[in-house]
Amino acid sequence: MTDLAPPTGEPLALDLINTRPRTQDGPADLLATAEGLRAWLTLQESRLAGALPEGGDAPLTDGDLTAAVRAVHEVRDHAAAAIDRARRGLRPPEDALRGLNRAQRAAPAVRALTWDGTAVTAVARRDGPPGARLAAVLAEAVAELLTDPAVTSVRECAADDCVMLFLPAHPRRRWCSAARCGNRARVARHYRRRRALDSQAAEPDL
Length: 206
Description:
By secondary structure, the protein is mainly alpha-helical. The protein is 47% helix and 11% strand.
């Protein structure tokens, strides 16, 4: 796995876990810094309602994001531990479940009522510092996946050097990305077959 672009498109809980890819230099953390977290939040913006500033809210500062990194890491650690067990039909670690519950309680969602000029509308909002709000939304996404029977269908990419998780829409899917790991696997198979054929052709006739 050499592509460090954050993978997206899986359930939010898996996209969060997948921010720790394996590279040629070893494990990487795409959310290690405020800059990395900001880039990931931009990619996931449409799925983070109630966690990010909206409308006239002040934008997130680098200080906000630096403080949020630790909270996000804690939720990610708990998510990885819980989903790893649940996808195999096993009981998740109790401390992981407690940690996810704690993150949700720290910034519960409230249906904020407003008048838009013609009717009352309700928008999900969360109080608290940005890190707590973000951690709560992410922990809620993890809870949704853990309580979904589909969690037992979550798989790890079949590529030897990849640790990405995905929820297959088709039971024959083997790769986190056909364009990335799937293509690399096909190329590797092609070269192995080619080497085997070349080796056979080079053997002297007896």
